Every structure is written in C-alpha cells, then in structure tokens.
C-alpha cells in the first residue's frame, strides 16, 4: 500500500499504459481519476478494475488538444477527489509522415497541444496546488524520442524533447517546495497504438532487432516505474528521465 491515502489523476487511462498505471496505483491504495478522450467504455473498465481494490475511481472526459479543457480537467478532478497528490501526464499522440516537411501545420500544432502544452497546463495547475500543501509528485510519460530523433516524426520528437526540458525546469523550481517531477521514457511497448506494427512480421522484426532485449515491453512494466516515482520510495528522486526501453537507448546511441 505504497500510495495509501493519496489521490491521483492519470490522463489517457482508458487503455494501455495509462490503464496499467491507474490500476496499479489503486492496488497500492490511491484513489484515482481516470481520464479519456473518446473511449468512455474503456475508461469505465479501468475505473471498475481500480475500484475493485477498494478505492474511489472517478471517470472524466477532456480533449487535451484544447489546453482550456486540460485546465478544467484538473479542477474537476480536485472537485471529485478533494485534492490531487499525484499527476501522471500519460495521454499523447503522434503525426508521422514519410517526410517531416509534409506534416501540415495544424497536425504539428495538434501534437504539440496534446503532448506538451496540455501537460504543461496540468503541471502548472497541479504544481500550484502541491506547493500549497508542501508535497506532491508529477510523472510525465515521455518517450525515448525525447532523446532519439525519428525521421518523419518531427512533431512528436519536438513535443517529447520539450517535455524533457519542462520536467527539468519544474524539478529545479519545485524541489525546495516538496514537489518532485520526473519523466518516464518508454521504448516499444505493446499497447493499442503499437499492435498493428507488432503483428506485422516484417515491421516487428525491424523494431525488435534494435532492442537488446528483443521484445516489446508491457504496460505493467511502465506502471511499475511510475509507482516507484509516485511513491515515497523515490523521495530523493527528481529531475530525471527513467528510460524503460529494453536497452534501446544504448543501442540507438541516446544520451
């Protein structure tokens, strides 16, 4: 029960990594707010699984391509649970193309809003509330692409690179005030976003041959890192990205 008595907001928790984090936090005693964009049924399934551990589980919808909805989401989460001790910015999207020069401006901005601007809005709102209480933890689900560039994915790479510096700057400012801020950088994880690639033998081989462990990770393996960073086990940890990638960063020459 590492999170007993805590309240957490996890964005994009209707499936995949977000669902694993929400249910893991609930198992460890945290009340949770499950956020979704379109998949209400998936969010309700996550909430049901979380509530089975005897905690409160609330479901909220917001379109994080609109930063104003991100701000409203945090206010609604506080209204449901009374406070938020842990924020996990997990929701994200990409906009790939054969050439980054072909990505339309509106698609580029849409990715930045979801992957960087709205996480910042949520960090700002949560940070202010946590500073008032003198404690709190923020965990951003970033990517190996905060360090590794990927042709055709300039919007995603730029957003995740920005999220890295956002985390580092906030960590410096908030550490003296009792609030910790860290990132998790997943590599290839078996989620609904990657299922098509992993089920295609040729594409799967291309991906897995770059990973020293020769396999995709599981959402629970990211949730385990998130639990550590959100809990008092990480009481002296702030300002870092923890890569969970089966060794991909070493193979790709990432920092």
Structure report:
- The structure is a single chain.
- The chain is of the alpha/beta class and about 260 residues long.
- The protein has a single domain, classed as Rossmann fold (3-Layer(aba) Sandwich).
- It contains nine helices and seven strands.
- It has a seven-stranded parallel β-sheet, with helices on both faces.
- α5 links the parallel β5 and β6.
- α1 (about 15-25) packs across α8, α3 (about 65-80) runs parallel beside α4 and α4 packs parallel to α5 (about 155-175).
- The mean pLDDT is about 95.
The helix/strand order is: EHEHEHEHEHEHHHEH
Poorly predicted sequence stretches spanning 5 or more consecutive residues:
none
- CATH architecture, by name, is 3-Layer(aba) Sandwich
Q: How many domains in all?
A: 1
* Main sheet record: 7 strands, parallel
Q: Treating each run of at least 4 consecutive H or I residues as one helix, how many helices?
A: 9
Helical content (DSSP H or I, runs of 4+): 40-55%
Radius of gyration: 17 Å
Instruction: Report how far apart the termini are.
Output: 34 Å
Globally, the shape reads globular
Q: Give the mean pLDDT.
A: 95
CATH evolutionary superfamily: NAD(P)-binding Rossmann-like Domain
Largest beta sheet: what is the strand line-up?
3-2-1-4-5-6-7
Beta-strand percent range: 5-15%
Q: CATH top level?
A: Alpha Beta
Q: CATH topology, anyone?
A: Rossmann fold
Q: Briefly note the structural class of the backbone.
A: alpha/beta
Query: What's the total count of β strands?
Result: 7
């Amino acid at each position: 029960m590492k999170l007993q008595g805590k309240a957490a907001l996890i964005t994009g928790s209707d499936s995949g990594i977000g669902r694993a984090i929400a249910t893991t936090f609930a198992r460890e005693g945290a009340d949770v707010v499950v956020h979704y964009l379109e998949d209400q049924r998936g969010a309700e399934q996550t909430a049901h699984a979380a509530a089975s551990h005897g905690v409160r589980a609330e479901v909220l919808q917001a379109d994080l391509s609109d930063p104003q909805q991100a701000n409203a989401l945090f206010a609604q989460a506080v209204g449901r649970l009374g406070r938020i001790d842990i924020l996990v910015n997990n929701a994200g999207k990409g906009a790939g193309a054969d050439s980054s020069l072909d990505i339309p401006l509106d698609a580029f901005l849409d990715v930045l809003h979801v992957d960087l601007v709205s996480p910042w809005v949520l960090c700002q709102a949560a940070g202010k509330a946590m500073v008032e209480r003198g404690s709190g933890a923020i965990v951003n689900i970033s990517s190996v692409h905060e360090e590794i560039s990927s042709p055709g994915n300039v919007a995603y790479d730029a957003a995740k690179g920005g999220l890295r510096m956002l985390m580092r700057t906030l960590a410096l400012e908030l550490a003296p005030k009792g609030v910790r801020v860290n990132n998790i950088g997943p590599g290839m994880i078996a989620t609904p976003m990657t299922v098509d690639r992993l089920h295609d033998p040729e594409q799967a081989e291309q991906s897995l041959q770059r990973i020293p462990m020769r396999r995709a990770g599981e959402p629970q393996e990211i949730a385990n890192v998130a639990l550590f960073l959100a809990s008092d086990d990480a009481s002296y940890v702030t300002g870092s990205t923890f890569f969970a990638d089966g060794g991909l960063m070493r193979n790709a020459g990432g920092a």
